[in-house]
Design brief:
Elements lengths: L1 H9 L3 E3 L6 H6 L6 E6 L4 E5 L2 E8 L5 E8 L3 E7 L7 E8 L6 E6 L4 H12 L2
InterPro entries: PHb, PHb_sf
Protein name: PH domain-containing protein
Pfam family, one: bPH_1
Length: 127
Amino acid sequence: MLGRILGAVTGDAGRVEPAALGPRFQEALLPGEEVLAAFRTVRDGFALTDWRVMVMDRQGVTGSKTEIVSIPYRSIHRFSVEAGGTTDLDEELKIWDRAGVEPFAFSFRRGSGVAMAAHAILAQRLR
């Protein structure tokens, strides 16, 4: 319980069921598209499907405006996991696409295994 509260305050992502990303995420899925894993912070989230990474960016004070960014696996240039050190509380997954200079970065609680699970899915999809 304390870990969930701390994660909510720090913005660390945790693995969730795809339905937890909300109705706008469900609407953005294509017919027959399979969600391999979904992750959510307090407001934002992302999912790895069978052919793309979907990033949900809720904007504004209420978070009612939502941007959904789709990154097809074929356009991912590189990705990395930054494992937490002794004093670090988090691990970070970064994804670079061909179009952007800045990576998409997602923070996870250290020791949860979620960053490496997302990394493994990306490695399988990009081989």
